[in-house]
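Hello again, I could really use a second opinion on something today. Take your time with it, there's no hurry, and the full record follows here:

___
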Amino acid sequence: MSGFYMRVLASDHVFYQGRVEAVTLPGDDGERTVLAHHADSIISIREGELRFRDVEENWHEAIVGLGFAEMINNRLTILVDTAERPEDIDRKRAEEAKARAEEQLRQKQSMQEYYMSKASLARAMTRLSATNKKNIV
């Protein structure tokens, strides 16, 4: 299988760049897999687990926040607000973030604050899910 170039950019760092064979993205309507020579497109990304297989056939995982992916000319660029490896997640911090977000949602807030609190809760839940999965394997 021929590969393609992928670059994952988080808001504060370059998470990954290199050749890959397959990428599975968490989208609004479920997971999407991108292979070499995929049609040019823009894909919305939700909080969740991004998986990709490099050209040496090793699978990698990342927990990503909101963003989008752009496939043009057999090059995939993924822009997300956060990207981290599951093994780098601090479970205690994720639990504290979840508790803070739940408390904020119980408070009276503006619409903007409400949506930010919902995003914080979704991010914390995704991070906790990844740590649970890591502990099971």
In short: The helical segments are 91-106, 111-136. The chain has two domains: 4-84, 88-136. Residues 111-136 form the longest helix (26 residues).
